[in-house]
Amino acid sequence: MNGRTKTGLEILFVAAILGVCGDIFLRVTPWGLNVLLFNLMFAGGTLTMLWRHAPERLTGQTYALLGALVFFASMFAWRDAIELRVADTFTIIVILGVLFLPTLQITAKVAGALQYAISTVWAGLNSIFGPVALLASDINWGEFPMTGWRKHAVAVFRSVLIATPLILIFGALFMAADKVYDGWVRKILNVDFETIFSHGALFMVFAWLTAGYFRGAIFAGAGAVVEPLISIIDSAVERTDESKVDQFRAESGEDPVVLPDNKTVVEHINRSDAPNVGAETKADSRPSDNETSEKKATWSWANIDNSIVPRFTLGTVEIAVILGLVNLLFLSFVIFQVPYLFGGMDLVQNTPDFKLAEYARRGFGELVAVSALVLPMLLATHWLIRKGNRLTENLFRVLAGVQIGLLFVIMASAVQRLVLLTGNLGYGMTTVRLYPMIFMTWLAIVFVLFGATVLRGARQHFAWGALWSAFLILGATHVLNPDAFIVKTNIALAEQGREFDARYNSELSDDALPVLMNSFETLNAESQQIAIRRIAKRYCQKRDEGDFRNWNYSRSKTLEILNSNQALVSEIGSCDQEFLGYRSHEERD
């Protein structure tokens, strides 16, 4: 049995284990501790397979990325907000993609954003289609000895496939012909096929995707590792082609006489005179096939430059026109924003026919979109600059720096709009206002990194820093607890006389309910009743959640607070459908 077959069987074995773990852990919803448990098993399987078959890929970057994967998987057992869960899921997918970069012969630390995206897509394709190659070509099934039970296994399997439809057809007819026989068959086959199918489907999905991912991580890019071995074999073959005299001379240790240009004695004697030295014929000056093949550039994902689109590269004129016009547009907008930026609420209120809602609501989302679009525009423009033109590169640095400076003013304007919208005279905090603000905070860090790397000629370090800054911001967001922060902000505004939206705040995740429950006394009677009605159905659902697999800190703490609040329990009363339907109907009225 060759090494590739053995490795393929190990991949199948590990994938089967993770398939069972995926079915056991992740079939229970809502997800919580089970996501952490599964990812711990997956990280362990990844480390084991790489340690056994690709130890050169176990670098500090690999350990750091696997640690980040486990960290964000653990967040499912801490926070309950759907926005954080979506962000954690997306982050885990990105990490799995970045871990795939070594298969493209790229180091994650110096890869670009485009290469991160390509690696993620490549990892997904391997996960989906890799098992086909693993089963069809990587594992040589012909190497298994067909003795004993293996000799008849194929025949038995083929016979079962043929007999199954016959048994189903005749069995259905017999059951329809006799009621007693029908009852006996149903009693014998009293099996929940739906549950069996769901277990089998989940097992197959997780085992299939895991096998494809591991197959790509180990076998993909293996050709580049084989090249040194081939060169060693070739050199050995070349040595065996030597004559016996040369081999004897080499083994004797004698130092042979070496003439100029490795000429033999006869060739040296018959050498042409000086005037003809260096004369070359056309045939001699023509490069050999080996030389031309060596000059051909080999494709590498690590060296994706704008030479693949030579007609779209940008010179000094293009850079000056494109970034210059965009900067003029940004400058025109900044000129209009400076008075509002420094005038604050007084200027907004004193401007005729200009309302706070119009100023804040209309502008914040658009300015966040502008901030997000500038980054890919600058990266693409920098990538398209013609190589070797220092003037163009310096011009780009100047114009890009000016644009980032103008962008920071625009981002400050967006922050001011959010402060006005959620402040004492505003309309309160919501998720659609807080999360874009967090996203824009990350963008500000990314633009600082852009200036410190790309504008200083170290673009290869930008994507790695941007990735870990995203990890940092997302981790800090979990610590902030956005839903609880929203409720705290809105309750503080209610204490200052602003209207409190009890329906919205009570519909937030379980991260916010402890804050809301502890602040009931500060709410008026109407808001308390609305919040209780909203909490009732959630409380009844939580009483049935007792599986350790979907344990979550926020959900557990919320249920504990609800159970300890006797007034709320007595208010809720019953959890039957009639009660819940009555509560919902009462709320609509």
Question: Which structural traits does this protein have?
Answer:
72% helix, mainly alpha, 589 residues, disordered C terminus
Note the gap between the termini.
74 Å
Structural class assignment: mainly alpha
Give the helix tally: 25
Q: How many beta-strand runs?
A: 0
Low-confidence stretches: 223-242, 247-256, 275-283, 291-295, 577-589
How much strand content do the residues show?
Answer: under 5%
Mind telling me the C-alpha Rg? 35 Å
Largest sheet: none
Label the overall shape.
flat
Q: What number of structural domains do the residues give?
A: 4
> What's the pLDDT, averaged over the residues?
82
Order of helices and strands: HHHHHHHHHHHHHHHHHHHHHHHHH
Q: How helix-rich are the residues, as a percent range?
A: over 70%
Task: Outline the structure in words.
Helix 2 (33-53) runs antiparallel to helix 3 (60-74), helix 5 (113-138) crosses helix 8 and helix 22 (525-542) runs antiparallel to helix 25 (577-588). This protein has helices at 3-26, 33-53, 60-74, 82-98, 113-138, 149-177, 179-188, 193-219, 223-240, 244-252, 265-269, 282-285, 289-295, 316-350, 356-383, 390-422, 431-453, 462-480, 482-495, 502-506, 513-518, 525-542, 553-564, 566-572, 577-588. Helix content is 72%, strand content 0%. It has 589 residues and is an all-alpha fold. The protein folds into 4 domains: 3-148 and 193-225, no CATH class; 150-188; 312-443; 485-588, no CATH class. It starts with a helix and ends with a helix. The chain is built from 25 helices and no strands.
